[in-house]
Amino acid sequence: MRILILNGPNLNLLGLREPHIYGHTTLADIREECHRVAGDLDVQLDFRQSNHEGELVTWIQQARNGTDAIILNAGAYTHTSIAIHDALKAYDGRIIELHVSNPQRREAFRQVSYIAPVADAVIAGFGTDGYISALRAIAEG
After folding, report:
1. In DSSP terms, which residues pair with 63 in a beta bridge?
2. Is 51 strand, coil or helix?
3. Strand 69-73's sheet: what is its strand order?
4. Which of 112, 121, 25 is nearest to 77 (CA)?
5. Closest by CA position to 84, among listed 64, 104, 54, 105
6. pTM listed for this prediction
7. DSSP 18
8. What's the pLDDT tens digit per position in 73-107?
9. pLDDT digits (tens, 9 = 90+) for 30-53
10. Is residue 99 among the annotated active site residues?
11. Taking a C-beta distance cutoff of 8 angstroms, is the pair 84, 115 a contact?
């Protein structure tokens, strides 16, 4: 099984940006833990981050060839990107929308998701542990 974990804008600043909301764990820490768990689950994992919407769209399109699932923390693009929504609609594998915080408890503009209508599941509000939950849900489910 091959799983792609994509991270959108500003997630490279995890651990530094608004730690009262997102915690102190860095994206590098999350990547390392996800690769460890993927090894335990006998899953191939590709873990990426970009601040550029078009690059995320390209990666989603490329995932159509041989990737079984996408775990997507689209960051702010969750609330703005029809392009990412459309790319995900063309993807046949499983999709989990992921958020470190719970967008429903935040500003009104964060409560709208263009990803959720095309996702099989949404994991939100569990901090960085949500990455491992999503990974296990795909690999074991």
Report:
1. none
2. coil
3. 44-49, 2-7, 69-73, 94-99, 121-124
4. 112
5. 54
6. 0.93
7. -
8. 999 999 999 999 999 999 999 999 999 988 766 66
9. 999 999 999 999 999 999 999 999
10. yes
11. yes
DSSP β-bridge partners for residue 69? 3, 94
Measured CA to CA, the distance from residue 67 to residue 138 in angstroms comes to 12
CB contact at 8 A, 106 and 41: no
3-state secondary structure of 66: coil
Cβ pair 30, 128 in contact under 8 A = yes
Residues 125 and 99 sit within 8 Å (Cβ to Cβ):
yes
Determine whether 52 is an active site residue: no
CA 30 from chain centre, in angstroms, equals 12
Write phi, then psi, for 58 (nearest 5 degrees): -60, -45
Q: Strand, helix or coil at 92?
A: coil
Residue of 22, 77, 114, 131 marked active site: 22
SS3 of residue 102 by DSSP: coil
Tokens at 46, concatenated: 């590709």
Catalytic residue among 24, 52, 85, 99: 99
